[in-house]
Specification:
Number of helices: 8
Largest sheet: 13 strands, mixed
Strand content: 25-35%
Distance between the termini: 27 Å
GO cellular component, one term: ribosome
CATH topology of the largest domain: Aminopeptidase
Number of strands: 13
Order of helices and strands: EHHEEEHEHEEHHEEEHEHEE
CATH class of the largest domain: Alpha Beta
Keywords: Acyltransferase, Ribonucleoprotein, Ribosomal protein, Transferase
Protein name: Ribosomal protein S18 acetylase RimI-like enzyme
InterPro entries: Acyl_CoA_acyltransferase, GNAT_dom, YpeA/RimI_acetyltransf
Organism: Deinobacterium chartae
């Protein structure tokens, strides 16, 4: 195994971390852009702790060749992303990074570690299984191109009001990126709307809209309110692409999204958990 050392990620600037993280995903299923602002948003919303995250450096030239980002919340930690530079793959660096962050999570007294891995990334799944991770559920994403909209009056509400609705009426035990603690850190240009009691939370850009949350009070479900809200939103935000990231449990929301013109995205993930 080639020589390397591990250092805490907080020792590096945001541009340096962004570059190292992007390098670790070159040629991957889904490449990661070198975008310090996007990384900053992830650090804030996902509670990624740079003091607990690790950067791997090749001995001799101090070149970052791997990163492991660790998010922390309550008694759980999450491997929010682990990437290895192309020339260092299949050289046991990923295993060394994983062993390091698992040992440190145990030393901190955390009870479990979570992660998501793209379904079909068999080498990564084998590595995680070898360390005791088990699959807890399958996560799907959805996409719609120019979804049909309806000109229905919408009430725009505060992000705080949307969070309150998600916390009150949303499913329990959601994946990390769907949990209220993650949504609470969203800021504009995120937008929130209500129609007939149904509430949606969006991340909006000129070219795309990401649906981050959709909830309906239990007593109002089964009446098509979520579908009507999605169609009204499609009219309000006529972006060419609407997406739901591949972080949604496959048992949640599929029928509603299909009625609004969404199809299942080709990429899916597995959520895995290690009891510490």
């Amino acid at each position: 195994m080639s020589a390397f050392r591990l250092e805490a990620a907080h020792l590096y600037s945001l541009p340096q971390l962004s570059s190292a993280f992007a390098r670790g995903f070159e040629g991957y299923f889904v490449p990661v852009a070198d975008d310090p602002q996007a990384l900053s948003t992830r650090l804030r919303t996902e509670q990624i702790d740079l003091f607990s995250s690790r950067v791997a450096l090749a001995e001799g030239d101090d070149l970052p060749v791997g990163t492991a980002l660790i998010a922390r919340r309550g008694e759980a930690s999450r491997l929010a992303g682990m990437g290895i530079a192309p020339g260092w793959r299949s050289r046991k660096l990923g295993a060394a990074l994983l062993d390091c962050v698992i040992a440190e999570a145990r030393a901190r007294g955390e009870k479990r570690m979570l992660l998501e891995v793209i379904e079909g990334n068999d080498p990564a799944v084998r590595l995680y299984r070898s360390r005791g991770f088990e699959v807890t559920r399958r996560l799907l994403g959805y996409q719609a191109e120019h979804p049909a909209g309806e000109d229905t009056p919408l009430e725009e509400i505060s992000l705080e009001a949307a969070l309150e609705a998600v916390t009150r009426w949303g499913e329990r035990d959601l994946p990390w990126q769907l949990a209220p603690a993650t949504l609470a850190a969203l800021t504009p240009p995120a937008r929130a709307y209500r129609l007939e009691g149904a509430v949606a939370l969006l991340s909006v850009s000129p070219q795309s809209v990401a649906l981050r949350a959709l909830v309906v009070p239990p007593e109002l479900r089964g009446q098509g309110r979520a579908t009507r809200l999605l169609r009204a939103l499609a009219f309000r935000h006529a972006a060419p692409v609407w997406a739901v990231p591949a972080i949604v449990p496959e048992t949640l929301g599929a029928a509603t999204l299909a009625r609004a013109g969404f199809r299942v995205y080709s990429l899916s993930q597995l959520e895995m958990c290690l009891e510490l």
